[in-house]
Design brief:
This protein is of the alpha+beta class. It is 41% helix and 30% strand. It has helices at residues 2-12, 47-62, 89-93, 105-109, 149-155, 169-175, 202-269, 274-284, 309-317, 348-352, and strands at residues 16-21, 24-31, 36-43, 67-76, 79-87, 98-104, 118-121, 127-131, 137-141, 165-167, 178-179, 189-192, 288-296, 299-306, 322-327, 332-334, 337-346. The chain has a five-stranded mixed beta sheet. Strands 13, 14, 15, 16 and 17 form a five-stranded antiparallel beta sheet that branches. Strands 9-8-7-10 form a four-stranded mixed beta sheet. It is globular. The relative contact order is 0.09. This is General secretion pathway protein GspL. The chain crosses the membrane at residues 203-228. Keywords: Membrane, Transmembrane, Transmembrane helix.
Length: 353
């Protein structure tokens, strides 16, 4: 199994040129999407605090993954989106020694694909890629319900009439350089130590005898200072987290109380809709969390989140008393869950038949 993985990874490492400046290029390795996991976090911090937040998030992921890459996008004043890619241990084991630049496949696509154009990316597991006019990249594996391109575009709320285009990353990277801003390279640099067997002679042994105690003292001093600094920073971060947690819990309690009160008022005003509410709770209770339910006659609009919004759409479409099920807005991925807005038409008479 290890030899098979080694052959696959070596065959996929491509040394390409990226335009860093007008007359400057740099070599890189791009990582196929099956060998890393993406994490996204939106934060509202000042520019000075941004690096510390990135450092903390990276340290937390490095407890489970040996290689973590990052990039930052500015959303507005004092609001940033941090993207992290945690590379699998199997892939990291076969990375070349020394410095190298690693680029996740989906991050590389953001600099290749044109906005508002659907692409079918070739490979062992083909998938759809679509970049919106706001430069948000949507990717979905081409299987199951997502095989027709029209369903994928409807799921993300895209209105695109142009036919899809085939895209081969290998052919593109072999044919031309890919433009990449220099500041994108900061979080993509990886260093792998080259461990070599050491053979000390008599002089080297003597140098080692005197140098090691001095080096150990310097390391211990550096560790002590770093530990004290980290402890102070950790205490400040913990206090801020506790304050934010209390405020968030209070807000959640207020929201839950308001939702509960509105729910009972709606039940009292419209007792006929109670069966529908119980039906939706039974159908979606295990796969989705509903945040809002709007009822206008037979038209129902559901707002919520799920691990897979397309699974929610599929379950609702299979009900005999429910029709015209569709996404009203594009599906957005937030903290590993997909936010959705689905509208449908409820016809209780047909369900009774």
């Amino acid at each position: 199994m290890i030899e098979k993985l080694r052959a696959i990874l070596q065959g996929q490492w491509l040394s390409m040129q990226i335009e860093q400046a007008e007359h400057s290029t740099v070599l890189f390795n791009y990582i196929h999407r099956q060998y890393y996991t993406e994490f996204t976090k939106d934060v509202a911090v000042s520019w000075n605090e941004l690096y510390q937040v990135i450092k903390n998030e990276k340290m937390m992921l490095e407890q489970r993954f040996s290689t973590v890459l990052w990039r930052v996008a500015k959303l507005s004043n004092d609001k940033y989106r941090i993207q992290l890619a945690a590379v699998s241990a199997e892939y990291s084991a076969f990375l070349p020694k020394g410095f190298c630049i690693l680029i996740p496949e989906t991050w590389l696509l953001t600099f290749i694909v044109q906005p508002e154009q659907l692409f079918r990316v070739e490979g062992s597991e083909p998938y759809w890629v679509y970049k919106s006019d706001t430069h948000t990249l949507h990717t979905t594996a081409i299987r199951g319900l997502m095989q027709p391109e029209r369903i994928f575009l409807d799921a993300i709320g895209a209105n695109n009439s142009q036919p899809s285009q085939l895209l081969s990353l290998n052919e593109i990277l072999l044919s031309r350089p890919v433009p990449l801003p220099w500041y994108e390279l900061i979080g993509l640099v990886h260093w792998k130590k080259n461990v070599q067997q050491k053979n000390y002679g008599s002089f080297a042994a003597l140098f080692k005898f005197f140098a090691l105690p001095i080096a150990a003292y310097c390391v211990a001093l550096t560790i002590g200072i770093s530990w004290y600094e980290s402890r102070l920073q950790g205490q400040v971060t913990e206090l801020r987290t506790q304050l934010n947690t209390v405020a968030q819990q209070q807000n959640k309690l207020d929201v839950k109380a308001r939702i509960t009160n509105d729910y009972y008022q709606q039940i009292d005003r419209f007792p006929a809709q109670s069966n529908l509410l119980h039906k939706l709770s039974s159908l979606l209770g295990d796969i989705a969390a509903l945040q809002r339910l709007d009822i206008s006659g037979s038209i129902i609009v559901l707002t919520g989140s799920a691990k897979s919004a397309t699974d929610v759409l599929s379950v609702l479409s299979q009900q005999p008393d429910i029709s015209e099920v569709k996404f009203d807005q594009g599906v957005q991925s937030v903290n590993g869950r997909e936010q959705f807005v689905i509208s449908l038409v409820h016809k209780p008479d047909q369900g009774a038949e």
